[in-house]
Amino acid sequence: MASTVIDVIAIVLLAVGLGLTTIGLYGLLRMDDIMHQLHAAGLITGPAVILILLASIATGSDEIITSAALVILFVLITSPLSSHAIAQAARRRGGTDDDEDD
């Protein structure tokens, strides 16, 4: 009974993660401004990847759980840093329309 509940939770997490990934990829391809593309990329690298990795915990394998936990930690640390660096580079290069007041 418990394994069935864990499997259902894993399927829901995987479905939501893949849905967010699909929406984020569509937004990434459709947006023309780098800041809007960063917002869509943040949707992919943040919640979507973490939900998919959380779904992999249902396998019960120690190696997979350890790897998923380490990758989640890595994503939580590097995703905001890389988005911030890309946004700063775009702003310095003049790739946004937000600089009109400066």
From TrEMBL:
GO molecular function terms attached to this record: sodium:proton antiporter activity
Transmembrane domains' residue ranges: 6-28, 40-58, 64-83
Taxonomic superkingdom: Bacteria
Pfam families the UniProt entry points to: PhaG_MnhG_YufB (PF03334)
Signal sequence annotation: none
Keyword vocabulary terms for this entry: Membrane, Transmembrane, Transmembrane helix
Keyword Membrane included in the entry's annotation: yes
Family, as annotated: Belongs to the CPA3 antiporters (TC 2.A.63) subunit G family.
UniProt name for this protein: Sodium:proton antiporter
Organism annotation: Capillimicrobium parvum
